[in-house]
Design a protein that fits this description.
seven-stranded mixed beta sheet; about 25% strand
């Protein structure tokens, strides 16, 4: 299978620290790269992580607070400076168009690349469908308009060699039954099983809301903010954020396989406590407390009808 991994460029919330850059996350999805929430310093973090402007096909901004978007100016200019040979599409809240325009044209530079603006509005919905994935967005709950993003790979079929042999199907007939659905009374379902497509969800600044659960549902990997620890839940609610326990409870209830916690307040210096509180919330799947320049592989595809936690 082609490379599918998350490259964490930054994990800080509003204030960066000595060890945490502002937000930035690259999802490698085969031949495509999707950059989420490029905060200040993202261009330098890309250099440190070995991520080139040529790797970027889409930029997805959840909202226009600085720690999620101030890096747009540098990233867009780098895309043009390096003369990326393909179009790049940008998704962001339409209500923040004025901020996007200011960042896109923050200083003078020569445009050499087609940057396609594809803003999100209303409650979100499907943004694009490609052979490799469907990308959709859902509205979240934050003081400014914010959206989360979700990628879903189309389901496929896994051919089962022992069943093919049992029915005497081999050679060109394998391709034929895949195209036609049946050969001589043998159905495709008799010799194959469903291969469920991978699912990735990206949830940043938000309180608990319906959009969070819709994005996280059965995700193979959920990247989600956990700005606060549980003891500061009142601050979380007031400022439109989640605690580690809340993020983990979402992952638990939605059947997430790999939970990635990120977007940490500068008040906390012990990442182990985020893991402890997430486990205390009952999440039993794979758990990563993100740090800058971390690479996390997506879990392998689930088998048909089976849960792999």
């Amino acid at each position: 299978m082609s490379v599918r991994e998350l490259v964490v460029l930054g994990t800080a919330s509003q204030v960066p620290t000595r060890h945490r850059n502002h937000n930035g996350y690259l999802l490698r999805w085969g031949s495509e790269g999707l950059l989420f929430d490029p905060g200040e310093g993202t261009q330098r973090q890309m250099l440190r992580a070995g991520v080139a402007a040529h790797d970027l096909n889409r930029i997805c901004v959840t909202h226009f607070h600085g720690d999620h978007s101030l890096g747009l100016a540098g990233v867009i200019q780098r895309i043009n400076l390096d003369q990326v040979p393909h179009d790049v599409t940008a998704h962001y809240p339409r209500s923040g168009q004025r901020f996007f325009d200011r960042l896109r044209y923050a200083t003078a530079y020569r445009e050499t690349v087609q940057l396609i603006e594809a803003p999100v509005e209303g409650d979100g919905g499907v943004l694009v469908t490609t052979p490799a994935y469907t990308l959709d967005a859902r509205k979240l709950s934050h003081p400014v308009e914010s959206y989360g993003y979700r990628l879903v790979e189309p389901d496929g079929r896994r051919m089962l060699p022992e069943r093919l042999a049992a029915h005497g199907i081999k050679g060109p007939d394998i391709g034929r039954i895949q195209r036609e659905g049946a050969i001589g009374g043998v159905r495709l379902d008799d010799v194959s099983e469903l291969r469920r497509g991978q699912r990735f969800a990206f949830v940043m600044d938000t309180r608990l809301c319906d959009g969070v659960y819709a994005l996280a549902d059965a995700a193979d990997m959920l990247v989600i903010e956990s700005t606060f620890l549980n003891e500061d839940i009142e601050l979380a609610v007031d400022h439109g954020h989640l605690t580690a326990g809340q993020a983990a409870s979402v992952a638990r209830d939605c059947g997430v396989r790999h939970l990635v916690l990120t977007h940490f307040s500068q008040r906390y210096t012990e990442p182990e406590e985020f893991e402890r509180q997430a486990r205390a919330a009952g999440f039993e799947g794979e758990l990563t407390v993100a740090h800058d320049l971390l690479r996390v592989a997506l879990p392998k595809r689930r088998q048909s009808g089976r849960t792999m936690l």
